[in-house]
Amino acid sequence: xxxxxxxxxxxxTVLSCSKKSCSYAIIGGEIINKNTNYVVLLNNKEVIDxxxxxxxxxxxxxxxxLDSGFYTxxxxxxxxxxxxxxxxxxxxxxxxxEFDESLVYTGKGAxxxxxxxxxxxxxxxxxxxxxKFCALSPLDYQSRMDSIRLQKNEKLKEFQLxxxxxxxxxxxxxxxxxFSYYASKEIYPFIHKGRGKEKKLVxxxxxxxxxxxxxxxxxxxxxxHFAYKSFLKSSxxxxxxxxxxxxxxxxxxxxxxxYNLDRLTxxxxxxxxxxxxxxxxYYYSMHFLRVNKDIKNNAKIVNYFLSKSTNEExxxxxxxxxxxxxxxxxxxxxxxxELRSIKDSIxxxxxxxxxxxxxxxxxxxYKNYLKDSRKRVKELNVKYPEVNFISVNIDDFxxxxxxxxxxxxxxxxxxxxxxxxxxxxxxxxxxxxxxxxILVDKEHVIINSNxxxxxxxxxxxxxxxxxxx
Length: 469
Hints:
Layout lengths: L1 H14 L9 E8 L5 E6 L2 E7 L5 E6 L5 E7 L2 E7 L4 E7 L3 H4 L1 E5 L1 H24 L4 H26 L3 H25 L34 H19 L12 H14 L3 H18 L6 H11 L3 H16 L10 E4 L4 E3 L8 E6 L4 H17 L4 E6 L5 H10 L7 E4 L2 H7 L8 E4 L5 E6 L6 H9 L3
Parallel strand pairs: 1-7, 11-12, 12-13
Antiparallel strand pairs: 1-4, 2-3, 2-5, 5-6, 7-8, 9-10, 9-13, 11-14, 14-15
């Protein structure tokens, strides 16, 4: 650790410069419990370079002719952003077991980035509070949200007076506060009485949405900022709900085809920026496909999506995902997929399905789900000994990373496997989200390809699976 700090201090001393004389910035870091041997650096979604980690899992990179703004670094499937301006020499250190929570910056430009990452983590914690506050009346809820916004503004002013950050940082930090506040207003009617289950929206006081008059739904500069994107998603959920209830009296809307078409239509109407529109259309179409259980409605969503999306990669992805779902419909035979065991033997999943089976998945990117799912399976094993639970890691990492994680959590069992060909198998089994589970009978016939072990009716499904024969 002392050697790392020494190298960092020397690097900053040699390479740092004033913003007036610099046109470049330095970014470097150290990865603890690495998932791969490299870090990918991106500007928006364009890859700048792939940076190989040295023998001590470190890297350093000089960005020449720097354009001030956010840059993305990706390790494995985890990503995070760093704000870089000319003259910055930003180093970070993180542990992949707690990617965001362990991230700490040092060097010139570190304070603004530590402020932003702490703000990001604080927003995640506050989100749970906000959902609870949604039970309040509109005016009481607004008062709570105004209070949270005021506290954030005071914290930002204190930082500004002490650190004298750039106009760019000020713009970004203020946008984070404002769009988090706007998003909280948008989710209120949707969450207030059960995520759109009501046939009538709660009465909203005048002025509740006055900020919408100032919103730019096509802000190219903020297009890749988390708070802005989160606001857009919350906003279109709410706008579509109001539109939907004008011509329908349906309750729960997440899997309602009409509501989802209303949402896509609202996006098409209000968003002209191609990048923003394509991302929102893709996000909501994929969301519908993964939660919908009535497959006959999928074609309506897919066809509308393809008629509006101009991103060929997204179009191909949606089409492939829909095709995979159709092949996994109830009554179909479970696909042939190769798995790797802890002992490094290769098996076809069909060879280990000889009784009612639940196939479930996990990823290093969702550590809490790994812990929760293992605990859940342990409980279910006691209740349903007739059922075999097969755990599959979906990551495209080397075998040692997978095995070391299982050993660390003391979770190894004879039913633990990993995909031999992760990218291909994830697409084939439509593993999106990772929380899905697939129920298969002893004859390899799919009963449900979109189950959830934590849903309230999952045990009823297991009973049906056990009593089928």
